Amino acid sequence: MAADVLRALTARHRTVVVDAGRGEVPDAATHVVLVVPLTVPGLAGALAWRAVRTGAPVGAVEPVELVVTCGPAPGRLAPDDVATALDIPVAAHVGRVRGARAAVERGDGPPVGHGTALRRAAERVLDVAVARVDR
After folding, report:
1. Rg of the Cα trace of the chain?
2. In what order do the strands lie in the sheet with 64-69?
3. Which one in 3, 58, 88, 114 has a CA-CA gap of 20 to 30 Å to 80?
4. What are the tens digits of pLDDT across the range 68-109?
5. Where are the domains of the chain?
6. pTM of the model
7. Long-range contacts made by residues 19-27, C-beta under 8 angstroms, separation at least 24?
8. For residue 135, what are the CA distances in angstroms to 19, 121, 128, 132?
9. DSSP-H helix ranges across the chain
């Protein structure tokens, strides 16, 4: 059923964004955005996901963009460290988003209004994706 929904969406819309969670990435995906916390466990999870997804060494499948998120984490990694380890460029970086956790718990979703960090990151990722498609 999910495949039918994706086919219908892609038939009517140029851009469809799907949160695949830890599951399978749809075959119709032209770009994959991997969201990685700036922590050692976050990086380990991203490396494991890529290994399962590609079945090949890191960096073997393109196009993959990388959005790095960070919250308050002692000893956190730098975005460049994560990009180097995954061999994927950082498309955008989102720092701590004040009030996001409470908004999600209320069912409002994260703040994405004009000028917010998440909106700027999403716009940057879309710009990178469109630039790659237009090449």
Report:
1. 16
2. 32-37, 64-69, 90-94
3. 114
4. 666 656 677 888 888 898 888 888 888 777 777 788 788 887
5. 28-134
6. 0.71
7. 22/49, 25/53, 26/2, 27/3
8. 25, 21, 11, 5
9. 2-12, 40-54, 79-86, 100-106, 117-134
Contact 30/133 with Cβ under 8 angstroms? yes
Q: What is the pLDDT of residues 106-128, one digit of tens each?
A: 888 777 788 888 888 888 888 87
Q: Which amino acid is at 46?
A: A
> How far from chain centre, in Å, is Cα 35?
4
Residue 54: other Cβ atoms inside 10 A: 13
Structure tokens at 13: 């819309």
Output the CA torsion sign for 48, 85, 127, 103. Answer: positive
Provide the residue count of the chain.
135
